[in-house]
């Protein structure tokens, strides 16, 4: 087994050589897979329960033994591992595992449902009007972008469940407490650029992504096209969902990445015999060839497991569908 490089994080050497998955967690078929819904298709009660659980995570102590909260564990791990799990083969399986750990944490906060996703392909013609941004049944809308203050961290989301006093701790890997910031990218009709880069995750663009016939081609096209466009469209340069390693600051991150996971699931289901275990690319930073036996680090957020364990959503350790 090849292990991803060890990390020197916060002065602590993380030994990934101890990360072999327990035999009991080896993939095997599940019988009654959970169903992950699109946010707008969920009931009012389901949405409310989900959001209450997210808020609950900000009241729980860190699982990693740090001074921040359980919610911040996810931000810190994502920021610390950022170059190891972006623009490399592990992007899709690592985030699939990351999402399952988040789902389990929500359930420990009393949430009885499953993860949900935002279908930004369906909303690409008018993203800012998507139901997910509703202040009453969604995640709230954008920040105040008309204020006169130029001080960083003052452009707060104006409405919804995550407006102030909801507070975040990290900006990339730096401790910089601030309110949730969402800086929607405006459209520029004169340059044929639509609002929030919606034209970069339209049905036509996704048809091109889905036409890729190899994992490497599909994963690269999805990550560097629609996935990145949504981050930039919602967060711009100064918002939490922008191109920041701390993008899980925005609770919308998890609906966004569940949609990314769904698109991979649908691509796999087009030809499950060949695509379920189709995996290739390279490992950062040595650019060695990636394999299914490579290890996915979680820095204590969960036990480190192999890529192979997260290729099939019908495996017992995942057991879900869309």
TrEMBL record:
Residues making up the signal peptide according to the UniProt record: 1-19
PROSITE patterns, per database record: TYROSINASE_1, TYROSINASE_2
Residue span(s) of domain Tyrosinase copper-binding: 86-103, 250-261
Record keyword Lyase present: no
Protein keywords: Metal-binding, Signal
InterPro entries xref list: Di-copper_centre_dom_sf (IPR008922), Tyrosinase/Hemocyanin (IPR050316), Tyrosinase_Cu-bd (IPR002227)
Example of a GO MF term: metal ion binding
Name of one Pfam family that matches: Tyrosinase
Name recorded for this polypeptide: Tyrosinase copper-binding domain-containing protein
Organism placement in taxonomy: Eukaryota, Fungi, Dikarya, Ascomycota, Pezizomycotina
């Amino acid at each position: 087994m090849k292990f991803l490089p060890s990390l020197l994080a916060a002065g602590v050497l993380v030994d990934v050589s101890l990360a072999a998955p327990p035999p009991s967690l080896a993939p095997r078929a599940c019988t009654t897979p959970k169903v992950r819904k699109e946010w707008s298709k969920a009931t009012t009660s389901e949405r409310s329960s989900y959001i209450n659980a997210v808020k609950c995570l900000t009241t729980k102590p860190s699982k990693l033994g740090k001074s921040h909260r359980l919610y911040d564990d996810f931000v810190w791990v994502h920021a610390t591992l950022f170059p190891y799990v972006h623009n490399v083969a592990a992007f899709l399986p690592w985030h699939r595992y990351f999402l399952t750990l988040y789902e389990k944490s929500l359930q420990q906060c009393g949430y009885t449902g499953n993860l949900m996703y935002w279908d930004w392909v369906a909303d690409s013609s008018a993203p800012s009007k998507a139901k997910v941004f509703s202040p009453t049944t969604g995640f709230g809308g954008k920040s105040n972008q008309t204020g006169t203050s130029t001080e960083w961290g003052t452009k707060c989301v104006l409405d919804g469940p995550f407006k102030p006093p909801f507070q975040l701790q990290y900006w990339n890997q730096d401790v910089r407490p601030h309110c949730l910031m969402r800086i929607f990218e405006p459209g520029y009709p004169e340059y044929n650029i639509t609002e929030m880069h919606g034209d970069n995750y339209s049905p036509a663009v996704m048809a091109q992504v889905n036409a890729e016939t190899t994992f490497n081609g599909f994963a690269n096209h999805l990550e560097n096209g629609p996935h990145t466009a949504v981050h930039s469209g919602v967060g711009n340069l100064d918002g939490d969902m922008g191109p920041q390693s701390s993008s899980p600051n925005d609770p919308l991150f998890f609906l966004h990445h569940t949609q990314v996971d769904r698109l991979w699931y649908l691509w796999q289901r087009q030809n499950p015999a060949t695509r379920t275990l189709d995996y290739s690319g390279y490992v950062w930073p040595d650019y060695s060839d990636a394999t299914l036996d490579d290890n996915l680090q979680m820095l204590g957020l969960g036990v480190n497991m192999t890529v192979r364990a997260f290729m099939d959503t019908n495996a017992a350790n995942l057991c879900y569908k869309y």
